[in-house]
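Predict the 3D structure for this chain.
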Amino acid sequence: MLKNDIFEHLTTLLDTNNARYRIMEHTTGGRSEEVAKIRGTHLGQGAKGLVCHVKGNGCRQYVLAVLPADQQADLAVLAKQMGGSRASLASPKEVFELTRCVFGAIPPFSFHPELKLVADPLLFERYDELAFNAGSLERSIILNTQDYRRIAIPELISFRKIAD
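Done. Predicted structure below.
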């Protein structure tokens, strides 16, 4: 896959599966809060994708871990749930090799055979639509939540930080 065809690959997948979605062109936002304001969506509707490397206990797995943008990932919990002993964020080089995207532009779909897709269940509990950058920092897709779950088929793993 070439660097700039993630958006086309994504929209073809969504169209083929009769997904309910809309595309939004916008200025580049920095943090998730800024992007939500630009999109006109709630922060929690954002589907934040983190490319992680889980290791230990005989486990070596790259993971695209998706959670609501208003939550923080607990990488230790993610590692344990995946059967590893530790997890770290992948390097920018690894992220690009696995997703063909830069940090912040990663859609919540894996198109690479070595990148396992997992999602925190909270992603499906609060909003009818999810919003995410679609391979570009200037282009978002707002997708029906159940269509995302049906098409992406992520493994559900609770890995968000829970307040004490």
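The helical segments are 6-16, 32-39, 75-81, 92-99, 145-152.
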